[in-house]
Design a protein that fits this description.
The complex is a heterodimer. Chain A is α+β, with helices and mostly antiparallel strands. Chain A has helices at residues 24-32, 36-47, 62-73, 171-183, 191-200, 213-222, 251-259, 356-369, 371-377, 382-392, 407-416, 427-436, 452-455, and strands at residues 14-17, 52-58, 83-89, 107-116, 121-129, 137-138, 141-149, 152-158, 211-212, 226-232, 265-271, 275-286, 300-303, 306-310, 315-322, 326-332, 342-348, 399-406, 440-447, 457-458, 460-465, 479-484, 487-493, 497-504, 511-512, 518-519. In chain A, strand 22 and strand 23 form a beta hairpin. In chain A, helix 9 (371-377) runs antiparallel to helix 10. By secondary structure, chain B is α+β, with helices and mostly antiparallel strands. Helix content of chain B is 47%, strand content 17%. The longest helix of chain B is centred in the C-terminal third of the chain and has 17 residues, at 36-52. Classes of the chains: A alpha+beta, B alpha+beta.
Chain lengths: 520, 59
């Protein structure tokens, strides 16, 4: 694991008053030249209200040292200058001794800069800044990093950002480092280890060259990281709508399928005359007021008889890092078109045998199967009547939002649910569910277009076993239960039909959506 | 004697019956005739296989 973050400084820290008239631009130009990525980081902390900047010099240790050894093994002379660690604080203070009295609430993050061969240009070797400040930003999984500032350890929660050296590592290495840091316990992974995996797997990285899909997935598979891969070939037609990317499933669905469950995705795209670039995507913004037309463009069509409105519809941008330009950028949802060749490698939980896209399609199938029951329930429950109407209206004017979660998380979510009249699910039912649920679940939340974005509430969920392989045969293999309003439905198999067992869950109205917030 | 092997999630049904009890058996539902999801799963798998052979390089 990288110990650059916790390395002691080799000289006394410099404490800089960063309030106006201190200029970020002048400071950066004087030390690092024209470096977009660090300008972006300084702009972020300026917006976050930083008032004090600490500058320290550190030796090349940990992942940086490994990088040096990789360069030397390729016959490249490394730059011997120390690395620079800059740390940002919200509080105003003037002396080194004052660092000891600061706490994590004041600490906004850090960046470590390194000079790279052949010209001694600077890169941001790594940085973690606290997550974006806007209310509509959703980053479902943050990691915690310890950072040494002036001899005191602080911690920062965020998503690791890093840059390539363009020699022994490229944008794909940087994107992989961020993604692997989100999903593996050490919360970081070195370029050197990635290259070792490639060498051992017989597909070595070639100096100054990019990484192929084959090499990227070799690294993921070596780490037992599950993923879905989809390449959307470039199209030269005039139609650049996001629904026609050369595949029926829009590329955004793949991104969202990972992100909503707290997992990142790698998004690759071709650039005119520059080959292809790849970035990590790990969050999204949510616009409650997005206009959603009751038209074909709003539906996700599994097939002509199975369609619904995906919750991804209300995403306005995806939150990503770009190793060339910095951290926490918002990429507009429809920015990439079929004029670019697009690649998505969407990561998912280690034990999930299938992805959220399949889970959602299967859940939609079961919801349609339950239509006669929901229709009948509509005679006594007005919300069931509304759901029945939504399922029938133009064949699917309901919303599905699908997330992966453990049985414990699902039970805890159910325990906290309150209907519009404050009604709750019986504790005895929760205990029985808790004893019988499979370990890992796909939960497809069911809502209505008028209920989902504004109130973030739902009418129930279809629950599937994520640990069993999804088969193309409708055999109930993955089905666990459906909770729709005040009923929990379970299925039993029979030769031609599905036997239905029903339990009373007592919540007759809508409830809150599952709130994903994972921090470790 | 009741057996649970014909349920999609037999342990869950067993626990619900043992610990919660108040179940109601409804009339059987037919499987959907639509093959949408089956075809969707197959098409997605094929598309993913094809994607593995893409020659794009990210630099």
């Amino acid at each position: 694991m990288s110990d650059l973050r916790t390395a002691s400084a080799i000289d006394a820290p410099q404490v800089i008053d960063a309030k106006p008239a201190f200029s970020n631009f002048s400071f950066i130009e004087s030390l690092f030249g024209n470096l977009d990525s660090i300008r972006r980081i300084f702009s972020q902390v300026r917006f976050l209200g930083y008032k004090t900047l600490i500058v320290e010099h550190i030796e090349s240790v940990g992942f940086s040292k490994e990088d040096d050894l990789d360069l030397q093994s390729e016959g490249i002379n490394i730059v011997l200058d120390p690395l620079v660690r800059v740390s940002f604080f919200r509080n105003e203070f003037k002396n080194i001794a004052d660092i000891a009295s600061q706490d994590n609430n004041s600490f906004l993050g850090y960046a470590i800069l390194k000079k790279i061969p052949p010209d001694g240009n600077w890169i941001v070797f790594e940085s973690v800044i606290i997550s974006p400040r806007h209310d509509n930003n959703y980053l479902h999984k943050l990691r915690k990093y310890n950072v040494n500032v002036g001899g005191k350890l602080f911690n920062v929660k965020g998503i690791l950002y890093c840059q390539q050296n363009s020699l022994t590592n490229v944008c794909a290495h940087a994107a992989l480092r961020t993604c692997i840091s989100i999903v593996t316990p050490p919360a970081d992974f070195s370029y050197s280890l990635m290259n070792k995996i490639l060498r051992d797997g017989g597909k070595p990285h070639v100096l100054k060259q990019g990484l192929s899909i084959e090499q990227i997935v070799l690294i993921l598979e070596n780490l037992n990281i599950k993923y879905s891969l989809q390449v959307f070939p470039r199209k030269l037609s005039q139609d650049s709508s996001d629904k026609t990317q050369g595949n029926e499933i829009p590329y955004q669905s793949f991104l969202y399928s990972s992100i909503e469950s707290g997992y990142p995705a790698l998004l690759g795209f071709s650039l005119e005359e520059l080959g292809a670039h790849i970035i990590p995507v790990f969050g999204h913004t949510f616009n409650q007021d997005t206009w959603v037309p009751k038209a074909k463009t709003s539906y996700f069509e599994v097939g002509k008889d199975t369609r619904y409105v995906p919750s991804e519809t209300w995403v306005s941008t995806y939150i990503c890092h770009d190793d060339n330009f910095g951290s926490y950028y918002c990429l507009p949802r429809n920015y990439l078109t079929n004029e670019n060749e697009i690649t998505v490698i969407a990561l998912r939980p280690f034990n999930a045998e299938f992805d959220a896209i399949l889970a959602e399609a299967i859940a939609a199938d079961y919801l349609y199967t339950l239509k006669p029951i929901i229709h009948k329930e509509g005679e006594v429950n007005e919300w069931a009547k509304r759901l029945d109407g939504a399922i029938n209206q133009k064949g699917g004017w309901f919303v599905l939002r699908t997330l992966c979660m453990s049985a414990e998380e699902y039970i805890e979510h159910l325990r906290l649910l309150k209907g519009w009249g404050n009604e709750t699910i019986p504790t005895k039912l929760l205990s029985a569910l808790s004893a019988g649920l499979p370990k890992l679940l796909w939960v497809a939340e069911i809502s209505l277009p008028e209920l989902f974005p504004a109130n973030k509430r739902k009418l129930g969920e279809i629950v599937l076993d994520a640990g069993k392989v999804a088969t193309p045969t409708p055999d109930l293999a993955n089905f666990v239960l459906a909770r729709i309003l005040n009923k929990v439905y379970c299925f039993e198999r029979s030769k031609e039909n599905i036997g239905l067992v029903e339990y009373d869950a007592e919540i007759k109205t809508h409830t809150d959506l599952f709130c994903t917030q994972i921090l470790n | 004697m009741t057996t649970y092997s014909n349920f999609s999630c037999p342990i869950l049904i067993q626990k619900l019956q043992e610990q919660y009890g108040c179940q109601e058996k409804k009339e059987d539902l037919p499987f959907r005739k639509s093959r949408d999801v089956s075809e969707f799963i197959k098409a997605k798998e094929e598309s993913e296989k094809k994607s593995h052979s893409a020659k794009v390089v990210f630099k």
